[in-house]
From TrEMBL:
Thiamine phosphate synthase/TenI domain sequence ranges: 5-197
Signal peptide: none
Organism: Mycena alexandri
Domain of life: Eukaryota
Residues of the full protein shown: 1 to 221 of 521
Function in brief: Condenses 4-methyl-5-(beta-hydroxyethyl)thiazole monophosphate (THZ-P) and 2-methyl-4-amino-5-hydroxymethyl pyrimidine pyrophosphate (HMP-PP) to form thiamine monophosphate (TMP).
UniProt similarity note: In the C-terminal section; belongs to the Thz kinase family.
Protein name as catalogued: Thiamine biosynthetic bifunctional enzyme Thi4
């Protein structure tokens, strides 16, 4: 799966008055390659509604949609997969519940997490938070570019894909890509971004900018 520009949604960060689907469509036009619907305050009915509407839009752009945390909602809308946290449903159980071929990703911020993700055969890992972020209350310190390199190294020899997350913006993306790959064979498959796209007055331009930096850096590393 193309994880190169991985959009994680957060409706609370939208500019005042901007509808979620409008921002999502602009980000899709700008070239995001995968979308994760992340809802931290919505109740189940609201989460389901947002996920279903977002799925219909992503389908039109042929972009896979993943659901954060909730296997039941992923199943209900026929999502491409789920993204799980360390305290969500274990991967082996999610794997049993989801249709064959579903994508299951997991957040990791330590070597222990990455080793467990390898054992449980995650399809991809989200590594971070790399840098501090206003989007999520972090329960441990940001891992930094060096920490990211260490976690990537722990993926060597596996076919698990990896994206970095946390504080990633067009202004620091080149630094992230150059720094994290200089010490490992396992390169990043993509970057996951929330606020730099969602909170932007122009998500299309924001996505396009991130993608062109990612692609340009990929060619020289
Ligand atoms: N997980 C680790 S950091 C983060 C999540 C969901 C939020 C990243 O948001 P932003 O706005 O891209 O820093
Ligand atoms: Mg979670």
């Amino acid at each position: 799966m193309d994880l190169s520009l991985y959009l994680v949604t957060d409706r609370s960060l939208l500019p005042v008055g901007k509808p979620h689907l409008e921002a999502l469509e602009q980000a899709l036009i700008g070239g995001v390659t995968v979308v994760q619907i992340r809802e931290k305050v919505a109740d189940t009915a609201e989460f389901l509604r947002v996920a279903r509407e977002s799925k219909a839009l992503c389908d039109r752009y042929n972009v896979p949609l993943l659901v954060n945390d909730r296997v039941d909602i992923a199943l209900a809308i026929n999502a491409r997969g789920v993204h799980l946290g360390q305290s969500d449903m274990p991967i082996d159980i999610a794997r049993k519940l989801m249709p064959k071929g579903s994508i299951i990703g997991i957040s990791c911020n330590s070597l222990h997490d990455v080793r467990r993700a390898r054992e449980s055969k995650a399809d991809y890992v989200g590594l971070g938070a790399v840098w501090d972020t206003q989007t999520k209350k972090l329960t441990s310190s940001p891992i930094g570019v060096r920490g990211l390199g260490v976690l990537l190294e722990a993926l060597d020899g596996s076919d698990i894909q990896a994206v970095a997350i946390g504080g990633i913006k067009s202004t620091n993306l080149a630094r992230l890509l150059h720094g994290s790959v200089s010490r490992t064979n396992h390169t990043l498959d993509g970057v996951a971004v929330v606020s730099d796209i969602v909170a932007s007055p122009n998500p299309e331009t924001a996505a396009r900018r991130l993608k062109s930096i990612f692609n340009a850096c990929k060619r020289c590393i």
